[in-house]
Design goal:
six-stranded mixed sheet; alpha/beta; about 475 residues
Length: about 475
Amino acid sequence: YVRSTEEMEKLFSQYPGAISNTLQIADRCNLEFTFGKYHLPEFAVPEGHTAQTYIRHLCQLGFDERYGQRHPEYRRQLDYELDMIEKMGFTDYFLIVSDFVRYAKSVDIPVGPGRGSAAGSMVAYCLDITDVDPMKYSLYFECFLNPERVSMPDIDVDFCYRRRGEVIDYVNRKYGADHVAQIVTFGTMAAKGAIRDVGRALNIPYADVDAIAKQVPNALHITLENALNLSKPLREMYESDLTVKNLIDTAKGLEGMPRHASTHAAGVVITKRPVYDYVPLSTNDDTIVTQYTMTTLEELGLLKMDFLGLKTLSIIKDAVANVKHTKGIDIDIDTIDIEDPVTYKLYCDGGTVGTFQFESPGMQKYLRELQPSTFEDLIAMNALYRPGPMDYIPDFIDRKHGRKPIVYDIPIMERYLKDTYGITVYQEQVMLLSRLLGNFTRGESDTLRKAMGKKIKSKLDELK
């Protein structure tokens, strides 16, 4: 709670003038928040280049390496993206990401092939930021940058979790330590934690509090209200014991409130001027962090990067090294045959322990039922195995094996739904279908995708 003036005066009675001085300090503070204006750092380009000519030069080199002289329509896509990126003012952003990814690869730090919407960008592919061909897999640039709604791009990059810190050190050296900071995050009181914290404050014996907390089901993002509905023992304790009722009611009031500050696992902010010109800073375990959270930093127009540490990349690197050591064979994981039948046999048998996003018991069960035979089957299963779309998995499996007919509401929809047996699995399919059937622009199709994903009914009604 906030102490009264009288309490504060009593607390600081040995320091005359301390209370009135706080008012003087407050009166001198004058800070204006400016939202929606970007403060992107500038990338130092080689002499004779501007940021615009340099990114085009790098993309040309990358395009020649990735595609050679083929595919004139691919070249048109690259030019379209470059024009859009330049128009939106994000050229330096791409050069910065490309530079630290290139550094990581040059010192043999494993980098992920691409994550999230950035994998839909031909520019990211030609700059070696991602290694997934967006044209081959019909990925959509507008999922990443919508030309009709300017918002900060967001490229998440996976690094070997053991060496992620080296990439942040490189960024510190390149832009100056005072231009780079990690981002604060606030741990909040979850259901069990709130019960334990309140129990401690109310002096309820630890054993009693522990017994109550253990009745909360181990489910992600569970609330105390849901726990009371799902756990019969917890509901009975709540209804029959006034102490438990008081404990849980008090905990409900604290649920979701900030409990402690820590450092965000991946977020790093890079600024044009020193970071302290834009945001207040603090330290957390000797790490300098911003006092504003990630969403606030984005609203203030600062560049936030996600340097994600991924154990899978370290495991792959170790496996490649072990094969080299024991068998004398050099493996390049970027050139492995993705149609290898022995690997598909592993997936069909559910032998996927240790395989990122394919190792849960539920996923293994569905893989044994699906018997995947193409890379597209694996992509679809990865997309379907999450809350909501999971309901479609049995139907997907039955259609693949011919136990159910593949049906298209309108025959022309086969163009985009053939690989997923007539089921709309991906956001990109929603976008492509809205353009095919409803004559949507690229920007409108992205707005539809977002409105569906976030269940924004007003926006859906408007687009209907």
